[in-house]
Write a structure and sequence with these properties.
The complex is a heterodimer of chains A (64) and B (573).
Chain A lengths: L6 E3 L8 H9 L8 E4 L6 E2 L6 H11 L1
Chain B lengths: L3 H11 L4 H8 L3 H9 L6 H11 L3 H5 L20 H5 L4 H11 L1 H24 L13 E3 L3 E5 L5 E5 L14 E7 L2 E6 L4 E5 L5 H5 L4 E6 L3 E6 L4 E5 L14 E5 L3 E7 L4 E6 L12 E6 L3 E6 L4 E5 L14 E6 L4 E5 L4 E4 L3 H8 L6 E4 L3 E5 L4 E5 L14 E2 L4 E7 L3 E7 L6 E6 L5 E5 L5 E4 L8 E9 L4 E2 L4 E6 L6 E4 L7 H11 L6 E5 L5 E2 L6 E4 L4 E4 H6 L2 E5 L1 E2 L4
Helix pairs in contact in B: 2-3, 7-8
């Protein structure tokens, strides 16, 4: 049984693994204001307020 | 800006760990870890969890991109080079007890003798303690049938959702509900006064249920109801076509369970008796002193006293194993799954469906679980969470997508002679607040905004503990907050006495009043007024006292010197 699907993204159906989430961020499908929550978290956190914003900035740097 | 590097360094240095040690913990080489700290690489979620566990913080603290992080003062190693063994070799409770014993031999011996005495007394009392008493337990606050979900809220009121075809959700009145049970098409409620209420299809047996008194536990099967009274006698009513009620002869029973068309009774020694028809009944002969039992058409799950769960399933469901579960406090099962609630409020589920597993793992702070044949329900004391078939709208599917409101803060209470007044700071986006206090069956007030709410103290007992519960009510994108709870001991305020200005009371009456309150006579200093202070009537009236316009407690009054002047009665010419 796949227990790696730990992320929920507000507005998206289903659950996502860490790899899925990072891929979605890098693909630009998830923007900075999207809300994320893992099974260990009590509250939703906006991507821009999380350390995973790193992947957004990383992408931006590469395109510049 | 990425705050993770600074946060990682701050935590590592606080705990005096080396980079090589952190690399070992995260199972990467030191260079890789150094990249995390210099910001050129990002850690994975799994690594975040390891760090959160190592530093005893919530994973959110690491995931959130701010500079704040909790630093706990705790055992630190003396050197920069720390081995993993350091953590394994930490003192166990046994070592701590042993050290204490060696340091305080005499005191420890006395404590051990006292403990031994308590154990012996407990055994003696256990064997003599009767009758049984009614027990409040959170897991009894939720019950689920094929089409309904019923729960007891914080105010001891019974609420339900789903199909009401048979009136099972109608008029769920109760004088303080302790336990609720759903059968197929009916609801039964155990009240704190030992009576049993019912709704729905069981109504034809309602009269019989009304005759049940001093009931301490109930259980509902598909079409029968079990009760046990404080003398350990089992009562059963409803459909007995499968022999479910053929258990009424057993004695000394303290708990009952009703799997499908069967009945299980457990006596004070943990011996099990059963009747009727249900899967896995043959397995029960190997058990004693169980904590709970759950069943469906295909599965029987037994929760043992040690918090582990044994599952007996029809072939085809053999993948259902709950061997790794520990510290389980509640168990339930559907036709193709079994679920367990641990004492930390997390729900474990065995099912051949990854989506459902992931969904259930998101639940937290759950206090009770139950299941229909194809859906699972979790209850956190306020909200109902559900996964699976929701054909009867037994639960809201949207809740997990909503933001939970913050709890109120800065809650203060004030007790005077008449009221307990509660004041708090509200939260943004709340559509209102529900404030309650557990007096009797519970009293609650719904407030539209943050304001002082008063509860009368008439039903409160001096020295007893009461809990104020406040929930921020959400709407739209927000769900209700977790309940804020404040427990206090009610100390009845001393009665106070107010003395209005300009008293119009005869001197004789005033003195009698003071003496009646218990003021010692030598504390009363009365002076007759002067030439100008003449009474118009024929009795001396109090014209001044040092009590005027003030309020005193009785003890203050009894300990003070009371002075007053009264007017001089004009002598008859």
């Amino acid at each position: 049984m796949n227990k790696n699907k730990i992320w929920k993204i507000k507005g998206f159906e289903g659950m996502f693994s860490d790899e899925d989430l990072i891929a979605l961020i890098k693909e630009g499908q998830i923007r900075s204001d999207f809300l994320l929550k893992s099974k260990d978290m009590k509250k939703w956190i906006a991507l821009k307020e999380s350390i995973y914003q790193y992947y957004v900035e990383d992408e931006r740097d590469e395109t510049l | 800006m990425n705050h993770l590097p600074g946060k990682l360094m701050k935590l590592r240095k606080h705990y005096n760990y080396s980079q090589s040690y952190l690399a070992e913990v995260l199972d990467v080489d030191t260079l890789e870890y150094m990249n995390y700290e210099n910001g050129s690489k990002m850690i994975s979620y799994a690594q975040m969890k390891k760090l959160a566990s190592l530093y005893h913080v919530n994973v959110e603290e690491i995931f959130r991109n701010d500079e704040e992080v909790t630093l706990y003062e705790m055992e630190k190693a003396n050197t920069d080079e720390i081995n993993i063994e350091y953590f394994i070799a930490r003192k166990t409770i046994f070592d701590t007890v042993k050290d204490f014993y060696l340091d305080h031999k005499i005191a420890s011996t006395i404590i051990m003798v006292l403990l031994l005495t308590i154990v012996v007394l407990s055994i003696v009392l256990k064997n003599t303690a009767k009758p049984y008493t009614l027990i409040r337990d959170n897991i009894n606050r939720l019950s689920v049938s094929e089409s309904t979900v019923v729960y007891i809220d914080d105010y001891s009121a019974v609420n339900g959702s789903g199909s009401n075809t048979n009136g099972e959700l109608s008029n769920l009145t109760s004088s303080g509900a302790i336990k609720v049970q759903e059968g197929e098409g009916f609801t039964i409620i155990l009240n704190e006064d030992g009576t049993v209420s019912s709704a729905g299809l069981i109504s034809k047996y309602a009269k019989e249920l009304q005759d049940w008194h001093n009931i301490v536990d109930i259980a509902a099967g598909r079409a029968h109801v079990l009760g046990v009274d404080s003398n350990g006698r089992v009562h059963c009513t409803g459909d007995n076509s499968s022999g479910a009620c053929d258990i009424e002869d057993v004695k000394g029973i303290k708990k009952v369970y009703a799997p499908s068309n069967g009945s299980i009774a457990m006596d004070e020694d943990g011996m099990l008796y059963y009747s009727g028809s249900f899967i896995g009944s043959g397995s029960l002969k190997n058990y004693q002193n169980i904590k709970d039992v759950a069943s469906s058409d295909n599965i029987l799950a037994i929760l043992c006293q040690d918090g582990t769960v044994d599952v007996f399933a029809k072939s085809g469901n053999n993948y259902l194993q709950a061997e790794s579960w520990k510290e389980i406090v509640d168990v339930c099962c559907g036709d193709s799954f079994v679920a367990g609630l641990d004492q930390y409020g997390k729900v474990h589920i065995e099912i051949d469906n990854d989506e459902i597993i992931s969904e259930v793992e998101m639940w937290s702070n759950i206090i009770a679980i139950d299941a229909g044949s194809d859906y699972l329900i979790g209850f956190d004391g306020v909200r109902i969470y559900g996964v699976g078939n929701n054909s009867y709208n037994q639960f809201s599917k949207e809740d997990l997508d909503k933001q939970r409101l913050e709890m109120v803060s800065e809650v203060e209470y004030h007790i005077d002679e008449e009221y307990v007044s509660v004041q708090f700071k509200g939260v943004s986006n709340a559509s209102g607040y529900l404030v309650s206090i557990d007096v009797g069956i519970g009293i609650s007030r719904r407030l539209e905004k943050e304001e002082v709410v008063k509860f009368e103290t008439d039903n409160m007992t001096d020295g007893k503990n009461y809990t104020i519960t406040i929930v921020s009510i959400g709407e739209g994108d927000y769900t209700d907050s977790d309940p804020f709870k404040l427990t206090f001991t009610y100390e009845k305020p001393e009665e106070t006495y107010s003395f209005a200005q300009g008293r119009n009371m005869s001197e004789e009456v005033f003195r009698s009043y003071l003496l009646g309150l218990g003021v010692p006579e030598d504390h009363i200093h009365a002076t007759m007024g002067g030439e100008d202070d003449i009474c118009a009537g024929d009795s001396a009236t109090v014209s001044w006292s040092n009590l005027e316009g003030k309020t005193f407690t009785k003890s203050e009054l009894l300990n003070m010197e009371i002075e007053y002047t009264y007017c001089r009665i004009m002598e008859n010419e």
